[in-house]
Write a structure and sequence with these properties.
With about 525 residues, the protein is an alpha+beta fold. It has 15 helices and 23 strands.
Length: about 525
């Protein structure tokens, strides 16, 4: 399903004086080879299972390894797994771990660690939940063998274990993986990946540090591609420097004091493109799909009519130009609940977004739906430029619709923590926040976290939409692509009626790095294979 041929189109906290000597000048005369990176936001949550925040996923790929990786054609490839066998008409799958795998405490990676990791991940992941529902037995017959006995074949098994969509199935020691999946990890973050996390050098809101794990056993076959293939590390140390002020980040990159800026803002990209020492690339052709997420538990967004009325207020072009600028090659409107150009996308229900905008009608529809002036707590991430831009436009939209809005601007880490609260807005909860998902994370109902309707088990906002869950199961049960597309079309029709979130458009985020770097992989920020030319 996930094939590039199916895609269309495009595919200051730290002051400059505190950054030290230029990054590209390090690594000489025996000094440690250091890569300095500006992440999209601060790393507020360290556990990649309890949050879907991408900055935590990127941290996860530094610290832990996966059984399978995804290549640039969206195909799962063995990573920690040496080989696998499929027997009994697809109902018995056995995976064998590569020999020599070690955790950061130099203990061997055993199959029972992987089994515990799969179980903890599956408790939180939409696709993992489906996998476990069809799993009769998950066991470790010996230290290198992982065995699934399935009630029926599950063709997406390897995709589930290797997908980069959050949460990712990272392999942890059993001592970590046996902890409650609904609570952040406790204790030392013992990893299985190519880098060690250095907690003693972490400065919240400013810096995160990783060092190379010398005992990491990289695959030695194939070519690095997205999260698949060899993970050869060429830096002794990777430093993440958090810079909420885009101008500071841009200056640091152009001056050579930083090596890599994950998400340069649209207004600064022209200057970066003119700098011959800076390379600009769009790493992910599936783009980023922006959304405004409702809290379905509390008024007024517990009413479907209120949520539905706001569809008429959404102008996706306003949101996209605020995030990435006026260059139409960098964004799309008329975006529904699946990314345009992908197999499950359709025009079902799109008239709700493409018809003429009429704010008078929106206000009348809100009143008819039962909106009585309840206070809307809109959370905004002040240190995350793209999300802050989305929130600013959403604030204006809600106010013009006549809603009573409290705009709560905090750092992204606080938003991530507060969105987990199920309390009413007046007791520290929330009503709405804006975020984005990579297109690959919305390709189909199996991986689409924010399109679930399973109530208390759903993603933040907790919508209860039984019909979406029924159609999602129909999608899994479909025997061919046409059947899946019919189910996906129906899901989108229901989504436009029930509105789990507001679709805000799709944009293509460039990344920027110094021309002296080579081997920067596509997909997401990955720190193996990168080296100085």
């Amino acid at each position: 399903m996930l094939r590039r041929r199916l895609l269309s189109g495009v595919g200051s906290v730290v002051g400059l004086a505190a950054l030290g000597s230029p990054a590209l000048g390090q690594g000489t005369s025996g000094a440690p080879r250091v890569l300095k990176f500006i992440p999209q936001a601060d790393l507020a949550v360290l556990d990649p299972v309890v949050t879907t925040a991408y900055v935590t996923r990127h941290h996860g790929y530094m610290v832990w390894d996966t059984l399978y990786g995804f290549d640039a054609d969206y195909r799962p490839q063995p990573q920690m797994v040496e080989s696998h066998s499929v027997e009994n008409d697809g109902k018995r799958v056995t995976m064998r771990l590569r020999d020599g795998l070690k955790f950061h405490n130099n203990e061997p990676v055993r199959a029972r660690d992987a089994v515990a990791s799969i179980r903890r991940w599956a408790a939180r992941d939409p696709l993992g939940q489906v996998l476990m529902a069809v799993t009769e037995e998950l066991s470790a017959p010996d230290d290198r063998s992982i065995r699934f006995v399935l009630k029926r074949p599950f063709p997406m098994l390897f995709e589930a274990l290797g997908k980069p969509s959050t949460p990712v199935c990272f392999i942890m020691p059993e001592s970590l993986a046996s902890q409650d999946p609904n609570q952040p990890l406790r204790g030392d973050l013992i990893g299985s990946g190519p880098f060690r996390f250095v907690p003693g050098e972490r400065v919240p809101g400013a810096r995160v540090v990783y060092t190379r794990f010398e005992e990491y056993d990289s695959r030695d076959d194939g070519t690095p591609s997205w999260t698949a293939g060899p993970k050869r590390v060429h830096f002794d140390r990777v430093e993440w420097h958090v810079m909420p002020d885009p101008a500071t980040a841009s200056a640091a990159l152009q001056n050579g004091e930083m090596d890599w800026w994950e998400q340069p803002t649209g207004d600064l990209q022209p200057a970066l493109r003119r700098n011959r020492n800076v390379v600009m690339e769009i790493p992910d052709p599936t783009g980023l799909c922006a959304i405004a997420r409702f809290n379905h538990l509390h008024a007024p967004f517990d009413k479907p009519g209120v949520r539905r009325a706001l569809l008429g207020a959404v102008n996706q072009a306003d949101f996209m130009t605020a995030v990435i600028g006026n260059d139409r090659s960098l964004w799309r409107e008329e975006v529904g609940f699946f990314p345009p150009g992908t197999p499950m996308a359709s025009d079902a229900g799109l008239a709700a977004l493409t018809s003429a905008r009429n704010m008078d009608k929106v206000r009348a529809d809100l009143a008819s739906a039962g909106y009585n002036g309840e206070r809307i707590v809109l959370m905004a991430a002040s240190d995350f430029p793209s999300l802050n831009a989305l929130a600013q436009v959403a604030h204006d939209m809600l106010r013009r619709a006549g809603m009573n809005v409290e705009f709560v601007s905090t750092d992204w880490g606080t938003v991530v923590q507060r969105r987990a609260s199920r309390e009413a807005p007046e007791r520290g909860g929330w009503s709405m926040f804006c975020t984005f998902f990579a297109g690959v994370d919305m390709f189909n109902p199996g991986v689409h976290t924010s399109l679930r309707g399973n109530g208390p088990e759903a993603w933040f906002g907790w919508p209860t939409i039984p019909r979406i869950e029924e159609l999602r199961q129909a999608w899994f049960d479909a025997s061919d692509l046409a059947g899946q597309q019919r189910a996906a079309r129906q899901i989108q029709e229901v989504a436009f009626a029930e509105v789990p979130y507001l679709p805000l458009g799709q944009y293509f985020q460039a990344t920027a790095y110094r021309r002296g770097l080579t081997g920067v992989l596509k997909g997401l920020p990955l720190f193996w294979n990168v080296q100085r030319s």
